[in-house]
């Protein structure tokens, strides 16, 4: 999704803006641009393509000036092109704007502004914003931005500069993320914290409809009525290195290898042997928990796949009925929500538009909302009733890996927490699961050591056009995640099937050498799975299997396999996903794909 940055201070704005934008590249983009106030004129430079195009142009012909705004665009309205790139300005370039979000009523506004004599040059929704601000401008930029944004429907985080007030940058958000960085005599706006971390760790997390006026002398927060807002400063504690590659070739590979630590950190302080489970931002009483007649787990993409595991975990451990839903479907299917409903939303970024909308609708209908998120201060974390923070650290690669395993860990912890409140498990059972859970970081570490055989598999299978993933029970949930990972970064067409469904249709796809990755880790389903594997091999399919250490049967029916450290069936997804992530990574690398920034994808999907 689009990323915005802004700078006001004493240094050259253009290099700080480009550096900030480089930290937002992970969000996905197709063009980049900046606008800098230079000798009381606004100079705009913007290009389709990588940020490097902009950086090269600025190296050849610098823009001087100490105040400016920047943008990486992920096209929604209008193809990627120089003219559709941001910043957008009014016709005589007195005002420039960067915008993340979607203006839903832009056609109406554009027609209206055209009737007032305004001219438009791009196909974007954003271009109405500088023109609207221009329409309302009577010498006070704040006033004009308030009036203009009151006419906008949809979502926005914007930064605005005006050549008639050349010391000022104004920003505001509604349903799109925006933070303010507080340096010494220099101030920043950005869509996400990594963009400002080289300069400051002191941040304001803006709420919807909070306006901020930045000059090099300070930052003023105001409501739309112009009243001053006092806000607590959020101090970022994680290290800037956490958002760097740290010697790995790609963020994705680094993040895959960070999984033992990510899970360990997420368990730390919550799970310990012979101690009660303590959760900081979650406070259910036994009565409240017993009052829920239904839990909905709602999320998108990988977070949804974590939810599919979460359903089994909570039902098995806490004996509460759970439904799991894709957020973009749930919103429109009129689900039955009452004050007896608990909705668990799962979102790494905490900003996914559909997930956020489910949270808000659910709240209106009286449900209690528990969020599992990785980002402190994200919209989801601020609006939920209870929050479980996964401690994965910043996830930069578009394809989610370490966030997924920490989301799984969150569900195991919540399942145990609910079970102990409801007394659905005895102490011995809880302690056994806790003890297994505490060994998982080491088992993930060992699974990561299997990379040689996975690399070998990748180099002989990277040119397949299609691949299939099979599993039963929790293996099916992990197969879905493996299939998503492979398709999103290698562009190979993949599907995951519940193995028992094979003969109801998908088996028609199997022919000689069709590549099939199977998971055979659920001991209680092993015999059934072996029969399904035989159905595939009989028809010529080439089978690669993920199996538990100690298994002796799989080798007889599969063409190739990898052994993973054994744990209890319920916890296996935490380990079995590792080879699937590595296979996807190595296949994508073999094909020469940009694994960190796959085509057409954005890290944080802040539009519907
Ligand atoms: C896939 C992936 C996406 C996200 C999805 C939800 O690798 O990363 O499918 O899981 O866009 O994002 P969050 O968790 O930020 O709500």
TrEMBL record:
Residues 285-424, 457-598 form the SIS domain. Its main location: cytoplasm. Keywords: Aminotransferase, Cytoplasm, Glutamine amidotransferase, Repeat, Transferase. It is found in: Cytoplasm. Homodimer. GO terms for molecular function: glutamine-fructose-6-phosphate transaminase (isomerizing) activity. This is Glutamine--fructose-6-phosphate aminotransferase [isomerizing]. The lineage of its organism: Bacteria, Bacillati, Bacillota, Clostridia, Eubacteriales. Catalyzes the first step in hexosamine metabolism, converting fructose-6P into glucosamine-6P using glutamine as a nitrogen source.
């Amino acid at each position: 999704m689009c990323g915005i940055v802004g700078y006001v201070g004493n240094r050259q704005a253009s290099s700080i803006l480009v550096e900030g934008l480089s930290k937002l590249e992970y969000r996905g983009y197709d063009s980049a641009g900046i606008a800098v106030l230079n000798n009381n004129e606004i100079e705009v430079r913007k290009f389709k393509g990588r940020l490097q195009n902009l950086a090269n142009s600025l190296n050849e012909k610098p823009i001087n000036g100490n105040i400016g705004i920047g943008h990486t665009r992920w096209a929604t309205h209008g193809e990627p092109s120089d003219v559709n790139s941001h910043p957008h300005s009014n016709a005589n370039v007195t005002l420039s704007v960067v915008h993340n979000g979607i203006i839903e009523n832009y056609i109406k506004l554009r027609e209206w502004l055209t009737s007032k004599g305004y001219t438009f040059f791009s196909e974007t929704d954003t271009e109405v914003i500088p023109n609207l601000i221009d329409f309302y401008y009577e010498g006070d930029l704040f006033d004009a931005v308030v009036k203009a944004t009151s006419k906008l429907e949809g979502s926005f985080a914007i930064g605005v500069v005006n050549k008639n007030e050349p010391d000022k940058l104004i920003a505001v958000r509604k349903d799109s993320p925006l933070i303010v960085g507080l340096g010494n005599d220099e101030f920043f706006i950005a869509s996400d914290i990594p963009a400002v971390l080289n300069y400051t760790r002191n941040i304001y997390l803006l709420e919807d409809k909070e306006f901020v006026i930045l000059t090099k002398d300070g930052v003023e927060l105001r409501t739309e009525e112009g009243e001053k807002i006092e806000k607590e400063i959020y101090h970022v504690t994680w290290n800037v290195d956490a958002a760097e590659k740290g010697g790995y070739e790609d963020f994705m590979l680094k993040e895959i290898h960070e999984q033992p630590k990510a899970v360990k950190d997420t368990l730390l302080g919550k799970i310990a042997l012979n101690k009660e489970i303590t959760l900081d931002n979650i406070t259910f009483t036994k009565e409240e928990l017993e009052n829920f007649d239904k839990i909905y787990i709602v999320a998108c993409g990988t977070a949804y796949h974590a939810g599919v595991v979460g359903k089994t975990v909570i039902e098995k451990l806490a004996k509460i009925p759970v439904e799991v839903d894709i957020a973009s479907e749930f919103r429109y299917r009129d689900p039955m929500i009452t004050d007896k409903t608990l909705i668990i939303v799962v979102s790494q970024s905490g900003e996914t538009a559909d997930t956020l909308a489910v949270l808000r609708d659910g709240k209106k209908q009286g449900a209690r909302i528990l969020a599992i998120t990785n980002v402190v201060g994200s919209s989801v974390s601020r609006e939920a009733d209870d929050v479980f923070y996964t401690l994965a650290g910043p996830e930069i690669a578009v394809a989610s890996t370490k966030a997924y395993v920490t989301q799984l860990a969150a569900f195991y912890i919540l399942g145990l927490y609910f079970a102990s409140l409801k007394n659905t498990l005895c102490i011995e059972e809880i302690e056994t699961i806790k003890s297994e859970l505490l060994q998982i970081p080491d088992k993930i570490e060992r699974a990561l050591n299997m990379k040689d055989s996975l690399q070998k598999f990748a180099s002989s299978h990277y040119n397949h056009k299609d691949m299939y993933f099979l599993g039963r029970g929790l293996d099916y949930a992990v197969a879905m995640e493996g299939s998503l990972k492979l398709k999103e970064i290698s562009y190979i067409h993949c599907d995951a099937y519940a193995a028992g469904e094979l003969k109801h249709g998908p088996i028609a796809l199997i022919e000689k050498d069709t590549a099939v990755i199977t998971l055979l880790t659920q001991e209680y389903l092993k015999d059934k799975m072996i029969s399904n594997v035989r159905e595939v091999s009989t028809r010529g399919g080439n089978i690669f299997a993920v199996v538990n250490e100690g298994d002796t049967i799989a080798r007889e029916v599969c063409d190739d396999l990898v052994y993973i450290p054994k744990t209890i069936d319920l916890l296996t997804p935490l380990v079995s996903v590792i080879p699937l992530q590595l296979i996807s990574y190595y296949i994508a690398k073999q094909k020469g794909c940009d694994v960190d920034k796959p085509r057409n994808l954005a890290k944080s999907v802040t539009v519907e």
